[in-house]
Write a structure and sequence with these properties.
288 residues; alpha/beta; Rossmann fold; 2 domains; seven-stranded mixed beta sheet; four-stranded antiparallel beta sheet; 6 helices; globular
Length: 288
């Protein structure tokens, strides 16, 4: 008796490809406004020795702390928003503190306030109180560092657009807007906007994903406050300009008094506890 041929399995329609995960505001912030490996290398080089523990105040999602831990150190990230600190939870070597930065107590070798958030302090008395608290957290030989921007266009309103490529092929338009600016009070209001065009699916926008109300402290104002808070030495470094050797090590030096800088500038301001070392320093941590 002839064998009945086996029935062919019923063909099912192919499932549509799963949509890419939608990028949230903090994903976009880290993609467009931060590059932690570079800053880890810069801070290690500026410290000049072998700093072990980083403190990141106003840390948001603790991107810098995560990169610091991945480079072999320990980190303490402090922010008042628990939802963003969750991005850093569970990483060995990284401690998160949900609190006001004036309540953080963990001793650190490097304490960093990035993304211009030193401007969250609008009055000198509050700035000085914070810097004294920051000094008390530093281990011997430790440094405090923050970034500033300023120059000819610091009080101009307007927008700046940049394009980025996301991890899933998304095309991202990042817009930085200075909404208001008053040179008499040194206050600015800034906003970050994003528009994302995924490789699949519809484009979406996140207008005013972040908004900031800052005081733009000048370099001499911040230097004087650091000295008054008890730091022994204060120096300024280019925020982005540094030398890199063939092994990926980063070399930095402080700006000399009277040295010209760009008309529109970005600086690291560094307060140091220990005695002054040589002017040129190297970090063996590659920038990636």
């Amino acid at each position: 008796m002839p064998r009945t041929p086996a029935a062919k399995p019923e063909r099912r329609a192919a499932a549509p490809p799963a949509p890419a995960r939608r990028l949230g505001p903090h994903d976009l912030y880290e993609l467009c406004a931060q590059y932690p490996p570079r800053d880890v290398a810069l801070l290690r080089a500026i410290h000049g020795r072998s700093p072990r523990t980083l403190g990141e105040d106003f840390s948001a999602g603790a991107a810098l702390s995560r990169a610091w831990v991945e480079s072999g150190g320990r980190a303490v990230a402090c922010d008042h928003d628990a939802s963003v600190l969750d991005r850093a939870s569970g990483l060995p070597g990284l401690v998160t503190r949900r609190c006001d930065v004036l309540r953080a107590r963990d001793p650190v070798d490097v304490l960093f306030v990035g993304n211009f958030t030193i401007g969250e302090f609008h009055e000198r008395s509050r700035l000085l109180a914070y810097l004294r608290h920051a000094r008390a957290r530093l281990q011997p030989g430790g440094i405090f560092a923050c970034d500033l921007y300023g120059g000819v266009d610091a009080y101009q309103t307007g927008t700046l657009d940049e394009d980025r490529l996301g991890p899933g092929g998304e095309r991202i338009r990042y817009t930085w807007e200075q909404v208001t600016a008053c040179p008499l009070s040194a206050r600015v209001v800034n906003a970050m906007h994003f528009r994302v065009r995924p490789s699949r699916g519809r484009a979406y926008a996140l207008p005013r994903a972040f908004e900031y109300d800052w005081r733009l402290w000048s370099p001499p104002e911040l230097r004087d406050a650091l000295l008054e808070a008890g730091f022994r030495h204060v120096a300024f470094y280019h925020r982005f300009h540094h030398a890199e050797d063939d092994a990926g090590g980063v070399h930095v030096r402080p700006l000399e008094p009277g040295e010209p800088i760009e008309e529109a500038w970005f600086l690291f301001v560094v307060g140091r506890l220990g005695r002054r070392r040589g002017t040129a320093r190297r970090s063996g941590v590659p920038t990636g």
